Amino acid sequence: MRNLGITQRVENVETHSERRDSLDQKWSVLANEMGFVPIPLPNSNKEIIPKMIKTLKLDAIILSGGNSISYLDYSGIDVAPERDAFELALIKEAINLKVPILGVCRGMQMINIFFKGKISPVKGHVNTRHDLNVDSEYTDLILNNVNSFHNWGIHATDVGSNLLPIAKDNMSNVEAFIHESHSIAGIMWHPERDIPFKQKDMKLIKKFLL
């Protein structure tokens, strides 16, 4: 089995005066079904990332969802600047070590920011489903209707350098992209939240991460 590192959301637990890293258990179930050993990654000091990737022998990385990106609204109740810094450094080191990356929802947004793209507010994308317009080359990998849990999106004019859109919604928001030379991809929907898991989602994840 291959080792899959998965980043975690940060939760502020006031009743215990703690900031906790957490990961939906469905991610572990999905990873197991695809033949991966899931390894939750702590939002730790970014200087240890090279050693972390090598010591844990990570074959691939998923940047998971959750937490608003802090520079957009530093006062937001769910921002986690420590996670932002960790994930940006993680992307850089994964590229250096040629470790494949898949960004999911917020994770896709972080990849876009890393490559100097922008994100902007979107309406009607929280706790719903919507249709996709999928590039013909990827119709066997991407569903034409997906779940949606985000307030921020990526317009077609705001995609980062060398990122190629492969699916959009009907408002020209990019819902999936790939990097033209690195093993990097992003999707805006949550494959772990569709139970039972969608076969196309699992096929897509394996395509990008194996």
Could you give the topology of this structure?
Layout: E1 2-7, E2 9-13, E3 18-22, H1 25-33, E4 36-41, H2 49-55, E5 60-63, H3 81-97, E6 101-104, H4 106-114, E7 120-121, E8 126-131, E9 133-134, E10 145-149, E11 152-153, E12 163-168, E13 174-179, E14 184-187, H5 199-209
Parallel strand pairs: 1-4, 1-5, 5-6, 6-14
Antiparallel strand pairs: 2-3, 7-11, 8-10, 9-12, 12-13, 13-14
Summarize the structure.
The model has no long low-confidence stretch (mean pLDDT 95).
Topology as a string of helices (H) and strands (E): EEEHEHEHEHEEEEEEEEH
Q: N- to C-terminal separation?
A: 11 Å
Structural class: alpha/beta
Helical element count?
5
Overall pLDDT confidence? 95
Instruction: Report the β-strand fraction as a percent range.
Output: 25-35%
Low-confidence stretches: none
Tell how many strands the DSSP assignment holds. 14
How helix-rich are the residues, as a percent range? 25-40%
Radius of gyration: 16 Å
**Biggest pleated sheet:** 8 strands, mixed
What is the general shape?
globular
Q: Please list the strands of the largest sheet in the order they lie side by side.
A: 4-1-5-6-14-13-12-9
